[in-house]
Amino acid sequence: MSYKDIVVVTDDTPECEARVNVAMHLAAVHDAHVIGVLYYRPLDLSRFAEVELPKEIVAREHRLEQEVRARVRERFERLLKPSGILHEWHAAATDPVSAVSTVGRHADLTIIGQNPPDVGAYGTSRDLAEHVVLASGRPVIVIPYIGTAREVGNRVLVAWNGGREAARALADAMPILERAQRVVVLAVNPDSSRPNSPHGELPGADIARHLARHGVNVEVWRRDAKAVSVAAELLNVSADEGIDLLVIGAYGHARLRELWLGGVTRDLMESMTIPVFMSH
Questions:
Q1: Does residue 109 contact residue 25 with C-beta atoms inside 8 Å?
Q2: Which domains does the chain have, with CATH numbers?
Q3: What does the pLDDT look like over 238-269, one tens digit per residue?
Q4: Which of 47, 208, 225, 278 is least surrounded by Cβ atoms within 10 Å, i.e. has the fewest?
Q5: Cα 110 to Cα 105: distance, rounded to the nearest angstrom
Q6: Residue 91 to residues 16, 35, 144: CA-CA distances in angstroms?
Q7: H or E element: which one contains 55?
Q8: How far is the C-alpha of 143 from the C-alpha of 112, rounded, in Å?
């Protein structure tokens, strides 16, 4: 199994380069095509405002928009061209959530940045990552705004609770898991005592057998973490074990721009320190 087309969301921020580098690394590993996109909200200039505002101000704003597009594309092309990886780049003034979600449905994987602390640059949008994770229907890797190493997917932690979302994320991440040097399946606070527990008699054992049949070098861990949140425990284990990618099912709903996230998903979106692979 392998990914054949990877979307990477670009913008006019220094953090964008880390995203493109991860996309390049995965594309090289999987012989994939990279699709860079820049979607940003159009200038909010109503017909009344365009009449009232001096023409030079309107022209300046449009010129700034074009300069940003050119700058973001130049950086994308400068990174991709020497690699020989097949790629393309698209930009449009449109709703970023709808546009990124739509293009993501026509690819194997989307790479996007964690919501920046300051929103304002072209291509950045509050809650964009969360909405795309929940709306695209395809797997998404969210890159923390603090940055990351170029190579991800060598040492992977899979958050496992036996649920539908976790199973979906694991299946979507299989091309990465099959190539990883080490895969740890971690069940945090598993409860096998209640009837029909999704964990079975031995939490993680069934999914470990499934992964082993795919040739995955898998370990199964179980942790009781009563003093900290599940998200904090996942990030603590990731730091202790040198994990470079966390795989987890995303919980939540996004309807009419009203976003509801499950607790672990929300906490990770806010405090991630490594790339997080999410499926919903």
A1: no
A2: 5-143 (3.40.50.620), 155-279 (3.40.50.620)
A3: 999 999 999 999 887 665 445 566 788 888 98
A4: 47
A5: 9
A6: 15, 11, 23
A7: helix 55-80
A8: 6
